[in-house]
Amino acid sequence: MGETLFGRLALLGMGLIGSSIARAARQQGLVGEIVAHAKSERTRARVVELGIADRVEADAGEAVLGADCVILCAPVGAYAELAAAIAPSLRAGAILSDVGSTKQSVIRDVGPLVPEGVHFVPAHPLAGTEHSGPDAGFAALFEGRWCLLTPPPGTDEASVARMEEFWRRLGSMVSIMEPGHHDRTLAIVSHLPHLLAFTICGTADDLEGETRQEVLQFAATGFRDFTRIAASDPVMWRDVFLNNREALLEMLARFTEDAQAMARAVRWGDAAYIEDKINRGRKIRRSLIELKQA
Amino acid sequence: MGETLFGRLALLGMGLIGSSIARAARQQGLVGEIVAHAKSERTRARVVELGIADRVEADAGEAVLGADCVILCAPVGAYAELAAAIAPSLRAGAILSDVGSTKQSVIRDVGPLVPEGVHFVPAHPLAGTEHSGPDAGFAALFEGRWCLLTPPPGTDEASVARMEEFWRRLGSMVSIMEPGHHDRTLAIVSHLPHLLAFTICGTADDLEGETRQEVLQFAATGFRDFTRIAASDPVMWRDVFLNNREALLEMLARFTEDAQAMARAVRWGDAAYIEDKINRGRKIRRSLIELKQA
Fold this sequence. Notes:
- The structure is a homodimer.
- Chain A contains 12 helices and 9 strands.
- Chain A is of the alpha/beta class.
- In chain A, helix 7 packs across helix 9 (223-229) and helix 7 crosses helix 11.
- Chains A and B meet through helix 7, helix 8, helix 9, helix 10 and helix 11 of A and helix 7, helix 8, helix 9, helix 10 and helix 11 of B.
């Protein structure tokens, strides 16, 4: 356990990520006090029961009063409203950060609302499970995972360094990335896979009676793994898709061309083409294993 | 341990599935003797080292001599040649079975080559991992998994019953299914998910320099899971795609329509449509968990 990094940390949103930060920050002795806010009364009541925050506030503005660090942990579609609600209550010198999966939209929505003297350091921990809500969180969620910081040009360097230390002490590896580049990278490694997983579940659900029943009964590896990905939080993912629209549509367009080329190879029996594509998948898997990301 | 079901079992192909059958059948005391055949000398040598068969034969015809049950465990594209090679050596009354992921093609390729008096019972255990080769197999692979039998009309009922018992004693649940129906069901639960996983790996591999590097470095949940699926055996999957062409292309066409509808919703900001599709994914996941298939 090291020195306290922030006297008071305010977490706005107490789902999987917010509640994991609360647990990990306390376990690591990173903060003096944790104030939690959640929009839903049920979540607030559950956070009180779990005892993972020192104080729980129904009002977001109340929650951030006197906080040295405020982290938005709600779905990105709620950020603009949340930022407007807390702006008058943020203290000068405070750091405002977030955990959203899209970064250009967050800078667009939150940036203009950040008061003079408050340091805005957008962040994205690449960590999660298919579960959601305050019960789903756990202190080890960020261990060995990347956290990407995407500070806009001109961001206070000392604040970036503090958020970097914050995430390192939660167990993460930290990298600084340009927001647009972040959004393109995440579109292919996370947003598109989720879109495909959600879609195939819908395709299966639309099948005629008997086959549909058997899809559930005989879900083999493949579909089963896709349904796990597709079990993720609907509001969070709806907001991610809508807030990384251009990069996501671009990656989906490339993917669709590639899938059509594969379909053509299957139709015309081009065995060499199919085998080559499959081998590229294996090669990428091996690279991931070497990079310890698998 | 129950009674011996077959005096001699011949396994043609000793990859993940063949070597798992060998291990499980011996562990369960299901067979008197196991004779293994593999096309590659390296695999045969490894099977000898592992000691998972009583005898290893380089010649498929030699391997099946006197066998009461012969199971084809090679990629389905090799079945026609293999069936032709063993046909003269099969003894009357023997059961010929397989483990291929496509069943209409197997009946088309192998059926006409089955000698009078030999009982052909096509089978497909829905079990596997992303690993391949004789070292990847393990005795518990089939436990709690489905094995689908797709006997063509007129198949000897006693032979079907024996294969049913064989798979049950390997730990599987068994169901009888019409071959065409099998192929349509597997196209959506297994073949299409693999095609999508292979394809997205190729799409990522084609990205421009910097983004491509970062895809590997920051592979988040989603892409990482897809690469695991995509690590599966290339020759096996090439053969599956080519041998379930019509059902696979039909399911891919439906999926592509659905993905395009999702793209349109993302482009035009149709939040309700996106959320509804995501919720269907969650519903399917819940059904799978209730059916204990997750």
